[in-house]
Amino acid sequence: MVVLNKIYTKTGDGGDTALGNGSRVAKHSLRVSTYGTVDEVNATVGLARLHAEGDLNDQLAMIQNDLFDLGADLCRPDMDKDDEAGYPVLRMSGTQVDRLEAEIDAMTKMVEPLKSFILPGGSALAAHLHLCRTVTRRAERLTVELATMETINPAAVRYLNRLSDWFFQASRIANENGTKDVLWVPGANR
Q: Could you say which residues form the signal peptide (predicted)?
């Protein structure tokens, strides 16, 4: 359990921060930018949840928890080491990816196949879910870039890849199962 008795520590005033293993890196390091962007995704999900109800809200709540798991995974280098107390380090798992895939498959059955690209919008929830999708894609790009320099849990990359697809399908569900999607009309304003 995490206990935060004091919110500010002043230890980052010099422009560095601690990773999950205790090592310190610059706040602008790629690893910090990567898990910081995952945190940004989580904040956008919080906004989307202001408009969500029922199963979709419950699924978004699970995603928010997963995103904290993902941040914990990404802030901890040393893939093969346990923490100092000997506990296993929290890592993303294939079961989290599998759950997203099953939810995407269920949503796909509820919408008609696309015949055009979709513009972000429609309902307020759909617009927020599109924002979640685009920030997730940025987090994925950063994670893939980080993986070219350091060892990254492959499930982390797979999760982000599926998550952006999840947000896309969820946006269609939020637009009355795709019937209220805003379709792109190529060259409409020429």
A: none
Which of 89, 85, 82, 38 lies closest to 64, judged by CA?
Answer: 38
**Cα 138–Cα 144–Cα 137 angle in degrees, nearest 5:** 20
Distance CA 181, CA 160 (A): 24
Q: Which CATH architecture has domain 16-75+90-180?
A: Up-down Bundle (1.20)
Alpha carbon distance 101, 159 (integer Å): 9
The C-alpha angle with vertex 77 and arms to 86 and 29, in degrees rounded to 5, equals 145
Q: What is the pLDDT along the chain (190 residues), one digit of tens a residue?
A: 566 677 777 767 778 887 777 788 778 889 999 999 999 999 999 999 999 999 999 999 999 999 999 999 999 887 666 666 566 788 999 999 999 999 999 999 999 999 899 999 999 999 999 999 999 999 999 999 999 999 999 999 999 999 999 999 999 999 999 999 999 999 999 9
The residues spanned by each domain of the chain are 16-75+90-180
Number of Cβ within a 10 Å radius of residue 41: 28
Paired tokens of 41: 């995704």
Report how far residue 162's alpha carbon sits from residue 3's, in angstroms, rounded to the nearest whole number: 32
The overall pTM is greater than 0.90: yes
Which tokens sit at 60?
Answer: 């978004």
